[in-house]
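[[Encoded backbone]]
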Amino acid sequence: MIPNGIPRIGDPAPDFTQASTHGPLTLSTWAEGKWVVLFSHPADFTPVCSTELTELARRAGDFEKLNAKLVGLSIDSIHSHLAWRENLREKLGVEIGYPILADLDMKVATLYGMLHPGASATATVRAVFLIDPTRTIRALVYYPMNVGRNVDELLRLLTALQVGDTHKCALPVNWRPGDKVIVPAPKTVQEVEERKQNAAYEKIDFYLSKKSL
């Protein structure tokens, strides 16, 4: 990881212990062998963030089916988080069931490169980190402050990572569950010849073939 920078794909996810709406949370023990979706929002009681947190809460069951836990973060106090949580339940009828980190000292935001001075010196941008059960960062997505995230895309990305791991394959553009996957490119002449004979593959060229799972 680059010191004081953004952790990269393949880096170990920086561990931390921080206050949350569910009590003190240590990433390495809280994750318990699950995938983690760690996301930051600029501030409590803001309109775009309110739509994001409630939609993630509505879709929490979809993440649970993928063996993933949600955890949010902003540079606000526990008291602010709890008050906003109650407000969202009252105004939008949604219970925020996942923990939200109170990162007042900016410790976690700094570890994960969530502070972008060009956007704001006092608020985190909309960062998302997908962390696998080995605590390795597998994907990261950043959004500007004025554009809300796409929860369907986060679920698609998480699903694609898991399918790729299980079946040792790659996923093509706009891949959705049920679509064909990409077979790894051949590395030897023998593998090229074997591919030509495989009737189960959709062969576009010797280096680009697809198959159904």
